[in-house]
Amino acid sequence: MEVSLLFKIGAVGILVSVLCQILKHSQREELAFLTSLTGLLLVLFWVLPYIYDLFHTIENLFAL
């Protein structure tokens, strides 16, 4: 895993948390929820290839 990916995930986490706090204080809880869901999906799409590689490696490890 690359270090830059960890920095991207951290930056998205900080940005999403700040935006959610701003939206919650302005009485827009629905937009805050959608913002956090969007951040979660974005990070999931970044991490998904690494999860696929992990399962593929485990499958090859236990293949007969």
UniProtKB/TrEMBL annotation:
InterPro entries, per the entry = Spore_III_AC (IPR009570), Spore_III_AC/AD (IPR025664)
Any idea what this protein is called? Answer: Stage III sporulation protein AC
Where in this chain does the entry annotate a coiled-coil region? none
Q: Which organism is it from?
A: Blautia argi
What are the alphabetically sorted keywords of the record?
Answer: Membrane, Transmembrane, Transmembrane helix
Identify the gene encoding this protein: spoIIIAC
Residue ranges crossing the lipid bilayer per the database entry = 6-24, 31-52
